[in-house]
Amino acid sequence: MDQLLERRWVRLLTPSLSDLFLIAILMWVFAAGQFGWKGLLADGDVGWHIRTGEYILDHHSVPRHDLYSFSKPGAAWYAWEWLTDVTDAALFRWAGLKGIVLTAAVLIALFCTTLIRRMVWRETNLMVAMIVALMGAGVSSIHFLARPHIFTLLLISISVWMIEADLRAPSNRIWLLVPLTVVWTNLHGGFLALILVLGLTAAGLAIEAFLRPAGWAKPLRYTGLTAACAAASLINPYGYQLHVHVREYLRSDWIRNVVQEFQSPSFRGESMFQLEALLFAGVIVAGSLLRRKQIVEALWILCFAHLALSSVRHAPVFIAVCSPVIASNLSEWYGAWTAAASKASLPGIFNQMAADAAKGFRRTSLWPAAVIVTLALMNQPLKWPTDFPEEMFPTQMVHDHAAQITDPNARVLTTDQWADYLIYTNPKQKVFIDGRSDFYGPEVGNEFIRLINGQPDWTTILNKYGFTVALLPVDVPLTQLLKLRPEWQIVADDGKRILLVHRATSVPPTGNIGPEPRF
Question: Averaged over 119-143, what is the pLDDT?
Fold first, then answer.
């Protein structure tokens, strides 16, 4: 017994290759990466997520009407990621933006680690697994942001792993997906990906049962599991109305036309080349699976490849669901190709090294937890963000001219991303439009687009909403038009952003922002 306990402690205290992979992702991508921790704050949505979470913590209820706009004051609003909002708010109150970016980085590193561990679990050659996993991480990096969807990336990978294990050896553990769905539904709308995977699995098993008579127990089991998870997703503050809203959101032609991440991928840049390669490989693998009558995983690949091609935001989900399947089949082909190679040959040496190293991806020690705790306690020399990145947000200008911008009577015209930052800076700030594209819809959204681009009716829209302050990029058409209007006074211009105030507005003196406001 003593020897057994000693062995267990040695295993817990000795880092595995899996641990080193997770730690490397944390350090390489975030602690020492090109954009560092602040890259996780490149999307301003985290600003209103924090403030919404604080509202929920302070009022002990989820908002059902708008909190932030003067363009749709009091309109019905679904805070459908409320549990992520609360998590962000709690992290922010505990450790500021550091808590949020560290948590996001850990979730992303865990997601990447689950990919390669799933591949090793499927007996994939480690060399092939490393290549596909790193390519998958590169594709998914387009959404390496401190936003609610990172919960979906990790949870869908874990869920599919559970399904893969259950298909190999059925277990009652698969029913844990039901309570997981409840939590997931309140974190992010990506819970629909799980229901889709389960539905495809049930359909694929039914087709396999028809093609290779093997009984209908599995298809019926997964049909029941799909129904149970769908029913569990109704446990949220908005009930079935959440599903109606998410469906309309995903089907909105306007959102697909104006929101870049909802558009088809543009195959330019390294991450999109990696996606292209994996999509090609996936289609080839799907064809092979269909020939072997392995319908379930073929349906996964074909369905999620289609979704990735229709909207780039679905590309990371394609990676989470399908990359281990692709890697496993590529590994089989590589193994068949090198089967005749001697152990002394280069392929034989690589195969032996891969087999030996794969053992290190089948266990976990205490090292990842120790590194994460160390990072949480460490301030220097790491450059933790204390504000949103100045390269992307007008942080200095907002702080230097807080009196004009955060005046309760001010009607600020700015971009959706910068409006998110204004809400973060002052949760009582009312904005024209922000990152909640599903809330504003085409009515306000199209007015914003026409206004910012100086379309013929721009003065009508400007007067309709009575804007008193404009905080804009210098290169948008509206900026040039306002600079020509004598009633608009330039207050600040740093060459990238410009702040203009309507001369009829009573302009209080400038000043710096004091302590961060709370609800």
Answer: 94
